[in-house]
Specification:
Keywords: Membrane, Transmembrane, Transmembrane helix. The protein has 136 residues and is mainly alpha-helical. It folds into 2 domains: 58 residues; 43 residues, no CATH class. Helix content is 46%, strand content 11%. The protein contains 4 helices and 3 strands; from the N terminus they run H-H-E-H-E-E-H. A 3-stranded mixed beta sheet has the order 1-3-2, with no helix packed on it. Strand 2 and strand 3 form a beta hairpin.
């Protein structure tokens, strides 16, 4: 039904522009279009409202959002998902690899390198006391 309504709208749109381009003023047709819109738009709106009221009467007021399964093991194309979601939660960039039947989510940021400690300079031995003071 939705596709038929959309198609009819496009047909009316093209037909209207054809009428404008041909330069034929048609006040009678314009009047029918205005009256039709004044009847059709409120009728569609009212039917949508009544549809939603019917849902409310059948199900009652919504108390929470719908519960959905968070098991994401396959995507909508049936590919198996390989991902460590807890590790990816803090990733700045995520790389998605699609290998036919698998989809892999990987952290795109390189792992931080282990901090390097500069090599200590060779220790300079402190002069012994007896070297500076001389022999007494």
């Amino acid at each position: 039904m939705h596709a038929v309504v959309v198609l009819a709208g496009w047909v009316l749109f093209v037909w209207g522009w054809e009428r404008v381009a041909s330069g034929q003023p048609a006040v009678g047709e314009l009047l029918w279009l205005i009256v039709g819109a004044l009847v059709l738009v409120p009728a569609l709106t009212l039917s949508w409202v009544l549809h939603n009221v019917g849902i409310y009467r059948r199900k009652g007021p919504r108390r929470s959002s719908a519960l959905v399964a968070l098991d994401y093991t396959h995507d909508f194309n049936g590919r198996r998902i390989d991902a460590d979601w807890t590790a990816l939660a803090g990733a700045r960039r995520v790389l998605i690899r699609n290998d036919g039947g698998h989809k892999r989510f990987e952290n795109a940021d390189p792992a931080p390198a282990a901090p390097t400690v500069p090599a200590a300079a060779p220790a300079t031995p402190l002069p012994r006391r007896d070297q500076h003071e001389g022999a007494h």
